[in-house]
Amino acid sequence: MIITRRPLLLGAAAAGLTAGRAYAQTASDFMGEWHGALNMGSQTLRLRLVVSEGPASVLYSVDQGNSAIPVGTTTIEGSRLTLAIPVINASFTGELHDGRIEGQFTQRGTLPLVFQRGEAAANATEALTQARLEALRAGVNTPAMAAAATKVGGRSIALATGLRAIGRAERVTTSDKWHLGSITKSMTATLVARLAEAGRISWTDTVGSVLGGAIPDMRAEYRDVTFRHLCSHRAGLQGNIEMSDLLAFPRESADARADRIRYASLGLHQAPQGPKETTFEYSNTGYVIAGAMLETKMGQPWEALIQEHVFAPLGMASAGQGAPGTPGAWDQPCGHAPNAAGQLEAYPPGGPLVDNPAALGPAGRVHANFEDVQKYLMAHCAMRSDFLNRESWQTLHTPPFGGPYAMGLSRQGDALWHNGSNTLWYAEVMFDQSRGIVAAAAANDGRVGDVRAPVGTALIEAAQAVV
Asked: Are residues 192 and 281 in the same domain?
């Protein structure tokens, strides 16, 4: 099961889609100014669309300096509006009815987008409540959802609703643990920063110098790749090894170090996706290689290192690896995925397919409750000086080779954000240093296309609730 990610648009995230009913319209009905908002996980990106005779149009990103985004082609066919926006390799297609243009914005992925007259109507953001979270959960019939947020020196919110597993009576609680998937990546990068600051490793350690003894025949293109390249997905590596190779790795392992060397070897023998630094390729393989380098330098498994140097200092007692819960006890939420009949099925701990192989630990196998997730996010948000110095925090939060992606985190305006899924769960986290807010949201449901939008909405609204 491969960890998924959300592609980025102007610092926004692309997800799901909607379509509206068609009604007979004329081109003049589209003329004028429209307002909409993209739910991008860490925040809502406000957009303003101006349609004029021709037809022609201009899109403005209100939250990015109200910058104009030229629209290449504007097409109106009855009730349908289509915009081609080549400058950002994007498009929008929507249907006009009842005074709204309802459709989807696409750039590598798709995101529901509704334009309507009047800025106030488009910009409204609700504050999350228990009833609202339940409505978001019920809207996609996901087993359970949870969300939490905290403002530095201010309010906190923690909500949960639904069932730990379909067919069971146990309900989720605000202290339950959630699988975090690729959110683990920023934790691995944080581990690198801690060890680098302590002088145990260096951000500039290379794959060749550390793993050359174990993998002497790695491709030459990867020999001078460093932790900086690996943690920012700028190593030129492919995203994943072949699925047939991945499935040969054990799901659980008492010590996955040998598996990570074998996984790293497979990745380091693949042809590059492109030149390092100039090529951004979101890579699970890169984080496995980073984990193998840490293990080789430190002489301990990544699981022990992350516990000793990240979880324990931050008081994250609930943090662990793999699917949360005790087999047979139903004491934590279970992941879910559709079965052959298309019906959601629970995957309780102890089964053969409850998480990614253990080798993928540094890329996406951590679970924790939201109290502990917020401790981790708050350390980043407040740049805790007793955990890392300011230079180390800036290294983690700054894209080293341009673009929006830093070290296991995507920069979106003033916020840093990430999501994660192991195809049985979906989660999002963010912290906004300008507002002093951290937030997390999750569902125990691997239907990413269905749950991405409501989980992202819960994240935004949880943050709004503590403003």
From this structure: yes
